[in-house]
């Protein structure tokens, strides 16, 4: 029986091209909701296991745009196909299909506000999009699309009403668990909690994200956002808070913990927070043999941090031990800047020497509280440090 089935499949594969049917033609006959469902499966997989790259996703989105725009107009009379088109656009797809449906006056089967709202969102007409989508009952929508609408409404609301946006992110997660919608909502909700000064909630949501979506293709983005909130905003970096962060990160898989600690150390360098850099280096506990590039990056961050402490000499020696071949372009630029700072500090005169070199009486600087005039080398060091900040922040 199985042999006959295999022969039948093989014969079909041979005969269809001869009859004028190609694989592309067969795909074109499929319903839009089937094509969009496949895209969602790929996106959900990228959110949970990171197997699909962003480049591959963009390629699939472009191919799907071509397929959706080529289907017969009659297909859009089915509500599930209309929902699929909206999901595609709300996921970042080409809005041409929705614009064409509106222009050709296709019967939108009661989904008029949803279609027009999705198109406005894609066109960045945020005020119009929020007005239209706010009139859509998320709870009454099919679950395949309800999470998307709740997520978009949260994104559009966050600048005006953080509490409402927080609740909408929560709703999106409940409606679409285990999907890219939940990943996106949780990632944004955690950072929003920090900005609302809900630090305990920020810690809980961040821990959930690391455990559920630590392998997402967007995880590196979240790690940098997490680090920026911990180091650079209103998060109090004290013993109590650091103990919570340490407990959170220690339970994570090695690779996720390492990436997060590197992000914390890098942000610590940008913010001149030596304590955070040392904390991240200790917590990462990177095996230099297993992850030589990670270990080298962390050593660079720690050595750079030591330059501005009383352990300057130790930091300078550590810089000389760093293997440039194990650094990326940004890290090598930071290494060069760190060397410039180390040389500038080493050559800087003492306060007494600088005062002695001034033509005015030494009491001028001391009595008036004015800083001693800087020598060129000190200015060069500051320029190097500023350049390092630019490089770490991604400034061209």
Mean pLDDT: 79
Roughly how much helix do the residues carry, as a percent range?
Answer: over 70%
Structural class: mainly alpha
Radius of gyration, in Å, reads 28 Å
Shape by Cα distribution: elongated
Low-confidence stretches: 1-27, 350-354, 359-382, 391-396
Contiguous helical run count: 22
Give the H and E element order. HHHHHHHHHHHHHHHHHHHHHH
Report how far apart the termini are. 65 Å
Largest sheet: none
User: How much strand content do the residues show?
Assistant: under 5%
What's the total number of strands? Answer: 0
Looking at this protein, list some descriptive labels.
single chain; 396 residues; mainly alpha
In short:
The protein has 396 residues and is an all-alpha fold.
Structure overview:
This protein is an all-alpha fold. 71% of the residues lie in helices and 0% in strands. It contains 22 helices and no strands. Helix 5 (79-90) runs parallel beside helix 9 (143-157), helix 15 runs parallel beside helix 17 and helix 16 packs antiparallel against helix 17 (292-306). The radius of gyration is 28 Å and the shape is elongated. 34% of the residues are buried. The model is unreliable at 1-27, 350-354, 359-382 and 391-396 (pLDDT under 50).
Task: Spell out the blueprint of helices and strands.
Layout: H1 2-18, H2 23-28, H3 32-48, H4 54-68, H5 79-90, H6 96-103, H7 112-122, H8 126-134, H9 143-157, H10 162-175, H11 180-195, H12 199-213, H13 219-232, H14 239-250, H15 254-270, H16 274-284, H17 292-306, H18 312-320, H19 329-347, H20 351-356, H21 362-368, H22 376-392
Helix pairs in contact: 3-4, 3-5, 5-7, 5-9, 7-8, 8-9, 9-10, 10-11, 11-12, 11-13, 13-15, 15-16, 15-17, 16-17, 17-18, 18-19, 19-22
